[in-house]
Predict the 3D structure of the following.
Amino acid sequence: MVQFTRSFFSLCLIAASIAVPTKRTVAQVEADIVSILTEVIAFNNNIIEGLVPEIPESLGTALNTGTSDVKATGTFDEADSTNILNDVQLAIAPVFNEALIRIEAIALHVGGIPGMVLLGLEALKTDTDAFTGALIAAVPADLKSQATTIQNNMDTAFTSAIAAFS
């Protein structure tokens, strides 16, 4: 009976440690934003006019990691929220939008674009929406409109690029 109790207690501790998500920090979220920006820049730089673009899985992975870390961090304070939103709005969004505009231009000039690009763009939009949605949930009420504007602007760029491939 003692052995069963000890084993059962050990299993409960293991289950509890697995079920409790690791708390993340604002510094980790900021590092995630740098990682996302690096991936977006690489994505943009690898778009070659006249060629079918590849949607990198690493960008989706970076966005998913950022989403998980934002959710695990909880609510940001006012100063951290402002810094994080400014990083996304002033660094990530413009490069992302440029990449999507360039992809859209390719779709207009190259016939027979494979459906894989469309699927890749749709998946990337889903990942981006999850990331910006997590940001919206994590910022204070007075900054939610700024976060929502960032998401809406990125959605507009994605909608246009996706329409070009549809």
User: Anything to note?
Assistant: The chain is about 80% helix and 0% strand. The chain has a mean pLDDT of 85.
